[in-house]
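Justification of computing resources. Each target in the renewal requires a structure prediction run like the one illustrated here; the chain below, 158 residues long, is used simply to show the kind of job we budget for.
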Amino acid sequence: MSLDVIDDILHHLKTYLFHKQHDKMIRKRVYSLSVECLDNILKHSDLNKEEHELLISYPPRFIVEKIAENFIIHTGNIILNKNKDAIIPRLDKLNNLTIEEVNKLYKKSLANAEISAKGGAGLGLIVMAKTTKQKIKYDFEKINDKFSYFAMQLNLKK
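Resulting structure tokens:
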């Protein structure tokens, strides 16, 4: 996944949403979530050049589904097993917070944000929880002793 591919995906999504989704707030939320998801796939995939053959069986995934008036965003990418151990507690914590607590955490994280080596400030998952106002569904499929496939589902209800 490259920036050019992401730009192309986002351009097509924006065009689709403009023509098919009349609710401006939903359009903005779907687009915002999509940016966060694609940014996560780009920044947090843990493959190096020697291990790219895994992409044949475990390609990055980004799917936006519209079911009735709701949207579901599915993502997936390969991560190191050791990074999985850091993600699970963060997701579980977010999923156990109320909407008000997520908003407070977002404000606190914004005030204390530091840019990581991968270029993120750790706000992506918080933004996703804040935007969807729903629990983030996730799963890890172990690929081998080094890698797992991280799948996530975001539900955006009208």
